[in-house]
């Protein structure tokens, strides 16, 4: 097991019509919501199996969704709300909460079905070796994982063009300007578009 850190999972409540909206033309509202449930469950199982330390599930829009509450209970995650603000503000809030308690934080979403225990442990190991930050770049130009041992972390997320192919590029520029020492893991792919579904079905957990 790698050095201890806090794993924070960001998840959006699987409300039909409000999640995986770019997949609705292919799956329908109910199908997209069902896929969201499966992705959340797989992510929580992976994080729990990594056994890196405390695990937290930060929910949006709030923490009162019964599915997310049941998931947190089943896998032993502390439940929290992401709160207000854009994605950068919410991620900064989550990581700062961990750093304020003296624990490095690693934050992941639920869109990366190929995320593995080994990948999470590699991220934690990079932080334990002295990196200020660790990132798991996404093939689409964003990233699927971010972790930090350095505060304040908010400077990395301010003014980033979220939802575009320039997210990781803009983040690298901020890291360089701020003098951060960072480590990048191997790029991963996530599920956002209908063309991602064929790749998803090649995975054992999503073959049916």
Tell me the helix content.
25-40%
Provide the β-strand percentage band: 15-25%
CATH architecture heading: Alpha-Beta Complex
The Rg value, from CA coordinates, equals 16 Å
CATH topology: Spore Coat Polysaccharide Biosynthesis Protein SpsA, Chain A
How many helical stretches?
A: 6
Largest sheet: 7 strands, mixed
- List low-pLDDT spans: none
Q: Pairing-aware structural class of the strands and helices?
A: alpha/beta
Question: What features would you describe in this structure?
Answer:
The protein has six helices and seven strands; from the N terminus they run βαβαβαβαββαβα. A hairpin with a 5-residue loop joins strand 5 (133-137) and strand 6 (143-148). The protein has helices at 24-50, 66-75, 87-99, 117-128, 167-177, 197-200; strands at residues 6-12, 55-60, 78-81, 105-108, 133-137, 143-148, 182-184. By secondary structure, the chain is an alpha/beta fold. Strands 3-2-1-4-6-5-7 form a seven-stranded mixed beta sheet, with helices on both faces. It has one domain (6-201): Spore Coat Polysaccharide Biosynthesis Protein SpsA, Chain A. It is globular, with a radius of gyration of 16 Å. The longest helix is centred in the N-terminal third of the chain and has 27 residues, at 24-50. Helix 1 packs parallel to helix 2 and helix 1 (24-50) packs across helix 4 (117-128).
Topology diagram in text:
Elements: E1 6-12, H1 24-50, E2 55-60, H2 66-75, E3 78-81, H3 87-99, E4 105-108, H4 117-128, E5 133-137, E6 143-148, H5 167-177, E7 182-184, H6 197-200
Parallel strand pairs: 1-2, 1-4, 2-3, 5-7
Antiparallel strand pairs: 4-6, 5-6
């Amino acid at each position: 097991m790698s050095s201890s850190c806090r794993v924070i999972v960001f998840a959006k409540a699987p409300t039909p019509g409000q999640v995986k909206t770019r997949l609705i033309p292919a799956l329908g509202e109910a199908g997209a919501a069902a896929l969201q449930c499966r992705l959340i469950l797989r992510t929580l199982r992976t994080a729990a199996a990594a056994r890196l330390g405390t695990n937290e599930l930060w929910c949006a829009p709030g923490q009162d969704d019964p599915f997310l509450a049941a998931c947190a209970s089943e896998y032993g995650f502390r439940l929290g709300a992401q709160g207000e603000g854009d994605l950068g503000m919410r991620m900064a809030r989550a990581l700062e909460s961990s750093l304020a308690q003296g624990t490095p934080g690693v934050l992941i979403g639920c869109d990366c079905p190929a995320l593995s225990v080994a990948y999470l442990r590699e991220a934690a190991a990079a932080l334990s070796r002295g990196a200020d930050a660790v990132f798991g770049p996404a093939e689409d130009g964003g990233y699927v994982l971010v972790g930090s041992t350095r505060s304040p972390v908010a400077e990395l997320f301010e003014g980033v063009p979220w939802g575009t192919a320039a997210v990781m590029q803009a983040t690298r520029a901020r890291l360089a300007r701020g003098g951060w020492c960072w480590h990048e893991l191997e790029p991963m792919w996530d599920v956002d578009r209908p063309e991602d579904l064929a790749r998803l079905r090649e995975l054992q957990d999503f073959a049916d």
